[in-house]
Design goal:
Elements (H helix, E strand, L loop, with lengths): L6 E7 L32 E6 L6 H5 L2 E3 L19 E6 L2 E5 L4 E5 L5 E5 L8 H4 L18 E8 L5 E4 L6 H8 L17 E7 L2 E7 L14 H4 L8 E7 L9 H14 L14 E6 L4 H16 L3 E4 L8 H21 L19 E5 L6 E5 L1 H9 L5 H14 L1 H7 L7 E4 L5 E4 L29 H27 L7 H6 L1
GO cellular component, one term: cytoplasm
Subunit structure: Monomer.
Organism: Aurantimicrobium minutum
């Protein structure tokens, strides 16, 4: 059963916004006292919080599907819908957040840091909020928008001052147990450590953390053993401590060869461009297990060669605690220097205000060729959000959408792109909203009268124009005159005669 997880994929679904309400206030002696539909509530956000008390992503490994609360719908009498409750997810300090494609979103490397990783949907406006001096009684409301839905990747990179690296069974777990209060699993077989262990060391007035990383072997940077899987935990360490086993009985191994192999694997591991390469960081060497007589002799023999290469070397024993005090203070000195250097190089963040460009219209129109002619695709956060907020079962709501698009300048841009009446227009990526564009839809709906919830511009039974009525009247008069002339011709030809009594009366 897993007890430590440092990489997990979360499936997020933020809450949807509530729909606005369509309502008309009715009181005694005031049957139509005006619109009073309330706004819908916003959906709940999903927030990541870097908690120092959390050390693993195990809880998310077991429950990767995360949902926040939806917003409530608006109601009559100006009652607003409730806002969905935000969902706060506690993650370890040092968690890197990426999208599904592996692109970095944020780095939770500061305790107490909060990031809204999945924003909730926006609540729709009720008809009371949509009322104006020209549209006094809207018969529609805006729908709530959908909350964020997608996957993110959480990758934990341990925040420690010193990382212990070395071959399996070199004594790293025993060393961290001897230096700190950590109690990792210790055994006499390789790969006993299956996940990083953290320990806190107090050396004089300096307190620092050390991380025990699972053992490295040759080829770790290519995926052999467990080293590659956990080398990410070394990225953020100030210094590296090479723990070398001087009492190994494996053939072909010696302290110098072991060190060269570990250095080669560290050099092959890529680190982010904004971080110092692993081999350029301060490195110390601990020749472990000198409590064994033969190991003591071997340590005394290889120590001069290591010091010639520029390393500070300490002969230690995690069992007898020999040399641990000197090692702990030496590590504290290196850590303190690293902290001072980081403080000196700290860059004060500069807040840059980037005003919106004068020619930025908030949308763009892309012309796409098709078998039936050009297709004009409208892209932009505003148009796409407005489409999502529109109730297409309500004619007045559709007319309101047309007015918003016209005021934004979509109609003018379509003309410039070469669109004509009947051209296919799509709003949004993919299928989106597809419709045949009619430029006449840009007339102001506020100046039209009609029942609530209707828009005369969408009525297919259009009223006849004056010219059409005039032409129809002339056609009718011409038909009547032609009928009279036909009767006269038939009478003159003797086909029928007028009765004498009727003729006398006339």
């Amino acid at each position: 059963m897993a007890t430590f997880v440092d990489n997990v994929t979360l499936h997020l679904k933020a809450g949807n916004g509530g729909n606005g309400c369509v309502s008309v206030k009715r009181e005694k002696f005031k049957p139509l006292a005006g619109p009073d539909g309330g706004n819908g509530g916003d959906g709940g956000d999903i927030v990541l919080y870097s908690d120092p008390q959390v050390t693993t992503l195990l809880s998310f490994h077991r429950s990767p599907h995360i949902k926040s609360q939806h917003g409530g719908p608006g109601m009559g009498d100006h009652r607003q819908g409730f806002k969905g409750e935000d969902l706060v997810l506690s993650v370890p300090v040092g968690t890197v957040v990426k999208d599904a494609d592996g692109t970095l979103i944020t780095d939770m490397n500061v305790p107490g840091m909060k990031v809204v990783i999945a924003p909730g949907g926006q609540g729709g406006l009720g008809n009371a909020a949509l009322a104006s001096t020209k549209r006094k009684a809207p018969g529609f409301a805006l729908l709530g928008t959908m909350g964020f839905e997608g996957d993110i990747i959480l990758e934990l990179k341990t925040l420690a001052d010193v990382a212990l690296v070395g071959y399996p069974s070199a004594g790293k777990s025993s060393l961290i147990a001897a230096l700190s209060a950590a109690r990792p699993k210790i055994a006499d077989y390789p790969f006993t450590t299956l996940h990083p262990n953290l320990g806190v060391v107090q050396a004089g007035e300096v307190r620092y953390t050390i991380a025990d990383v699972p053992g490295l072997i040759e080829g770790a940077s290519e995926g052999k053993g467990l080293g590659l899987e956990f080398l990410r935990h070394v990225e953020r360490c100030t210094a590296l401590l090479h723990v070398i086993d001087c009492a190994t009985l494996e053939p072909g191994r010696d302290p110098l060869t072991d060190l060269d192999v570990i250095l080669g694997e560290l050099a092959a591991y890529p680190v982010p461009s904004d971080q110092i390469p692993l081999l350029e960081r301060p490195q110390l060497i601990a020749l472990n297990k000198v409590d064994v007589p033969d190991a003591k002799d071997l340590a005394d023999m290889v120590r001069p060669f290591l010091e010639e290469r520029g390393y500070r070397v300490f002969e230690i024993s995690a069992v007898s605690h020999e040399g641990l005090r000197q090692l702990s203070f030496a590590l504290a000195e290196v850590v303190e220097q690293g902290r001072q250097q980081a403080a000196d190089n700290e860059v004060v963040p500069v807040i840059m205000l980037r005003p919106r460009a004068v020619d930025d219209q908030g949308f763009d129109i892309r012309v796409e060729g098709g078998s039936n002619g050009n297709v004009y695709r409208v892209l932009g956060s505003k148009p796409e959000r407005w489409v999502e907020q529109t109730d297409f079962n309500n004619e007045e709501a559709v007319g309101y959408l047309a007015d918003r698009l016209a005021k934004l300048g979509v109609e003018d841009m379509l003309f410039k792109k070469g669109a004509v009446a009947g051209s296919t227009v799509i709003i949004g990526e993919g299928n989106g909203l597809v419709f045949d564009w009619e430029p006449t839809m840009t007339s102001a709906a506020e100046l039209m009268t009609g029942p609530r919830g209707t828009d005369e511009r969408l009525n297919q039974n259009n009223r006849r124009t004056n010219k059409e009525r005039r032409d129809s009247y002339y056609d009718l008069m011409d038909a009547k005159q032609e009928a009279r002339d036909e009767l006269v011709r038939e009478r003159d030809a003797g086909i029928w005669q007028v009765d004498e009594e009727i003729a006398d009366e006339s």
